[in-house]
Design a protein that fits this description.
single chain, 186 residues, Nucleoside Triphosphate Pyrophosphohydrolase, three-stranded antiparallel sheet, 11 strands
Length: 186
Amino acid sequence: MDDESLMPAAVMVLLYQKEGEYCILLNKRTQDVEHHKGEISFPGGARDPEDLDFRDTALRETSEEMGIDPADVTVLGELDDIATRSRFGVRVYVGTIPYPYPFEPSSIEIAEVLEVPVEGLLDPDNRRQEVRWMNGVTEKRYCYTFGDHMIFGATAQIVEQFLDLFPRDTAEPGTWRSPGHGGKRG
């Protein structure tokens, strides 16, 4: 991330098969957290000084928020970095976990664990485009619905990137294209 005014952060897009269907793991944040209260997000957060790198940040935050052991995550690669309106510069990783997994969400940070089927996100009925006027500029962004939940903002941007790379003709996520950072893989 080139913009030093952004708070460095990282998130993990976790993919797994549940009952023969690919799902990604999202969560609804509590009203007690400092940022993004009540919003739908991927596991992740701000980089700590003791984190070795952004990947370490994503794995640490995933462990803290969802109780997922970093050793259980197979990192496949990265998506493109994004900047949020709340001034975070987010490095995005994609990984897999075994399923079933005994999620242990932090009651302080996580109000609800959301296991979202990828096919549902690909359904045009669950996706719409919003047009917003921000800082004198018209922006077109996608948002998604999952049950009663609205996925918007940075999380929706990440979902959009992820879906663009999700293989429609194979069940092997290891065959994905990885555009982030010159196509580096985990």
